[in-house]
Amino acid sequence: MTEFFKGIPPIRYEGPDSGNEFAYRHYDPDEKVMGKRLEDHLRFAVAWWHSFAWPGGDPFGGQTFDRPWFGDTMELARMKADVAFELFALLGQPFFCFHDADVRPEGADFAETTRNLEEIVDYIGAKIEAGGPRLLWGTANLFTHRRFMSGAATNPDPDVFAYSAATVKTCMDATHRLGGENYVLWGGREGYETLLNTDLRRERDQAGRFLQMVVDYKHKIGFKGAILVEPKPQEPTKHQYDYDVATVYGFLQEFGLETEVKMNIEQGHAILAGHSFEHELAMAAGFGILGSIDMNRNDYQSGWDTDQFPNNVPEVALAYYEILRAGGFTTGGTNFDAKLRRQSLGPADLVLAHVGAMDVCARGLKAAARMLQDGALERAREERYAGWQSSSAKALLQGGLEACFDHVTRNALAPEPRSGGQERLENLVNRFV
């Protein structure tokens, strides 16, 4: 045991009237919602990178956090894991997520780095077997080190491509050994700064082949989890190839991967792409590729990905509404890809950030479930498109321009617009949130 969270009690559900800040007011893991435990709906995960590896910097300032496990030794990596599982025990969430670079120090060469990863994976595995939370997903950090400054899969240097692929292999092996339920590819630098030195076609082909290699290796090792791609539109590069869900789906189709790969969708990335979170979730559900989510929020006065903990129940409710409409999570879950503000230095801040976020998500999901069970939104949607249920309307889609011309002239049509009733539906949503 470490002393980092000394004096902080385990978080328990006490109900909405509790005055105890170290308690859940809305997240009761055993509460049944639509016949399913709340814990099984939400499938919460803590992100290793923001909670234990992030030093508290921003674009204009460096480290503000002074954690006792910061450093590049295996001893400190084990201390970090000890602290992580102490937080997990306090929160009681069922999952966690990590990048390789979050849990192991960089070695002098690839072989030493791989040994470091394997050793810490054994250490983490023992903690899981002792009753700790499970691994929702693992991933490789292919963006922080300077070797990835021009991308990983899309790098113009074939040696960097090979190094990236080898790193992913080690991370897939680690995820498989730990019983991870998904493996995520997050292309933090798979884009370009300028077209003056970029071959778009070549880089796109490299990215497609890289993902095909990942899927092939998944089947070779018998990994039963899902392969997930996380769309990201910009920041730090001007243009990212995995801009949004629609872009990624076209990419998957081009390389024959649309039935092999699903999406891990982040709220903050959806906003950077000019969309809402629920738009991206609905788009993924429509394509049949909704996998998992990174839950956070952006500061709407800033133009970059601030990765704050969620605190907006109406926004969260609309997101979970789309997830529930799609049938809920299978292998996926709610990962808090969120970090403290750089002025929030204390251990209690880290605990309370998660407590508040878990309560917000619980409130949002329960509101979404009530909306779905009420059915008014779905009835309004069905009524709006009811005209397409007739045989004559269906025939229009099968016919050509001449068929539409004949339909209009034969029936002397002069259609008038009908209200979409947006404000009425917004009022309806507000009754639940």
Fold topology:
Blueprint: E1 12-13, E2 23-24, E3 32-33, E4 36-37, H1 38-42, E5 44-47, H2 48-53, H3 74-91, E6 95-99, H4 100-103, H5 110-129, E7 134-139, H6 158-177, E8 182-185, E9 191-192, H7 200-221, E10 226-229, E11 239-240, H8 245-254, E12 261-266, H9 267-272, H10 277-287, E13 290-294, H11 313-325, E14 334-336, H12 347-374, H13 376-384, H14 391-398, H15 401-410, H16 422-430
Parallel strand pairs: 1-2, 5-6, 5-14, 6-7, 7-8, 8-10, 10-12, 12-13, 13-14
Antiparallel strand pairs: 3-4, 9-11
Description:
- This protein has 16 helices and 14 strands.
- It starts with 11 loop residues before the first strand and ends with a helix.
- The radius of gyration is 24 Å and the shape is globular.
- Strands 5-6-7-8-10-12-13-14 form an 8-stranded parallel beta barrel, surrounded by 5 helices.
- By secondary structure, the protein is an alpha/beta fold.
- The active site is at residues 99, 102.
Quaternary: single chain
Number of strand segments: 14
Please count the helical segments: 16
Domains, number: 2
Q: What distance lies between the first and last C-alpha atoms, to the nearest angstrom?
A: 41 Å
Arithmetic mean of pLDDT:
97
Give the overall shape: globular
CATH-level-4 superfamily name of the largest domain: Divalent-metal-dependent TIM barrel enzymes
Rg, Cα atoms, Å:
24 Å
The computed structural class is alpha/beta
SSE pattern? EEEEHEHHEHHEHEEHEEHEHHEHEHHHHH
- CATH fold category name of the largest domain: TIM Barrel
Main sheet: strand order = 5-6-7-8-10-12-13-14
